[in-house]
Amino acid sequence: MKRLALITCLVLVSLSAFAADAPKQPTLYTRLGGYDAIAAVTDDFIGRLATDKSLSRFFVGHSQDSLGKIRQHVIDQICAATGGPCVYTGRDMKTSHKGLGITDAEWNASVAHLTATLDKFKVLAKEKSELLGIVSTLKKDIVEK
Fold this sequence. Notes:
- About 70% of the residues lie in helices and about 0% in strands.
- It is mainly α.
């Protein structure tokens, strides 16, 4: 019995040592290019949303300071959700978007703009798919109609 316990212990130690030596997959944050790349994508994406006549109503009436805070929240949220070092401190998506009456069509238009932005920055298909998958989890809390 002691021999079996010793062998089991040795196997577990060997496996944990092997796992520790295994190369780690870079986070999506790293594969996207890190903070500066996420900030550049966010700037392009928000610019597209703000200039789209069907979506611009969501940006009217905000001060420059408020727009800057929205930008920073988007950056922090993407950074944190992709495994980066940022901490998102904004409100949850349901609270942030409640009462805006966002429709499926507006959601789809915003996803199309994000996809166009990712294509502009030549984000690889795997990373684009992973990011869009993360974003898609927010739909239920953003779309009201």
